[in-house]
Amino acid sequence: MAQSADELLKRILVVDDETDVTELLDYKFRQAGYAVRALNDPLRAIGLARDFRPDLIILDVMMPELTGVQLLRMIRSDALLNDTPVIFLTAKGETADKVRGLESGADDYVTKPFDARELMLRAQALLRRAKSAAASPSTRLAAGALLLDIERHEVTAQGKVVELTATEFKLLRLLLERKGRVQSREELLSDVWNYSPDLETRTVDTHVRRLREKLGPGGDCIETVRGVGYRVSG
C-alpha cells in the first residue's frame, strides 16, 4: 500500500496493552513508509506524544491503569495534542459503545479483531482530512490555559474573558502565532506598532508587562529572553 510523496514520514503513535497488536501495527505502518512509535504502557503515552508529536494516534480503549477514554480526555485538553486525530481500537463492537467512543472525542472507531488493511485505509483517510484542515489557517491560538479567538476577537485565560486593547490583542496574537520562537523587541516594534526598528524599545516592555498583569497566571506563558525579547511557550 504505497503512499504518495506528500504522505511520507507521517508520524503515528500506537498505544495498546497487547504486544501482538503493537508489534503488528508497528510493522505494517513502517512497511508503508510511516514513522511509528508503539508502546504498551498508557501511563507513558502523553509524555511520548508530546515529544513525538504524532500526526495520528491509534488508541486501545480497554487498558489497565489508564483507559483509552481517560487518555483521550488528556489528549484533547493538551494544547500541543488536542487537534491530533485519534482512532479507537476496542473489543466492544456494539453501536452504543461506538457512539460513546465517538462522543468522547475519537475521530474513528475500529473493533477487534480488525483487518490491518482496513485500519490503514482509515488512518490514511484521517491523515488526508487533517492535512486539508491544516491548509486553512486556524482562527484559534492557544498556549497553556490561554486561548485567543481571532474571529471573535476574544481572549480567555483559564476560561475567563480578558479585556485587551487593540494593540495588546495584536501583540498577543503575534506572539502566539510565533509560539516557541523568540521575538526581539525590534521585531515586535516593527510588526505590532509599525515603528522603525531603531526607535525606543521600552514601549514593548511596557505593553508586555500590562498584558501579563491582565492575563494573570495565563500570562506566565510569555517568557522574557534576557537581552533579546520575548517568547510564548506551552
| Residues in helix, % | 25-40%
Structural class, by secondary structure, is alpha/beta
CATH topology name of the largest domain: Rossmann fold
Poorly predicted ranges = 1-7
Specify Rg, calculated over alpha carbons: 21 Å
CATH architecture of the largest domain: 3-Layer(aba) Sandwich
Major pleated sheet: 5 strands, parallel
User: What is the H/E string?
Assistant: EHEHEHEHEHEEEEHEHHEE
Number of domains: 2
User: For the terminal residues, how far apart are their CA atoms?
Assistant: 37 Å
How many strand elements?
Answer: 12
The CATH superfamily of the largest domain is Response regulator
Quote the beta fraction: 15-25%
Description of the structure:
The chain has 234 residues and is an alpha/beta fold. The protein is built from eight helices and twelve strands. β4, α4 and β5 form a beta-alpha-beta unit. The chain is elongated, with a radius of gyration of 21 Å.
Descriptive keywords:
234 residues; alpha/beta; Rossmann fold; Arc Repressor Mutant, subunit A; 2 domains; five-stranded parallel β-sheet; four-stranded antiparallel β-sheet; 8 helices; 40% helix; elongated; disordered N terminus
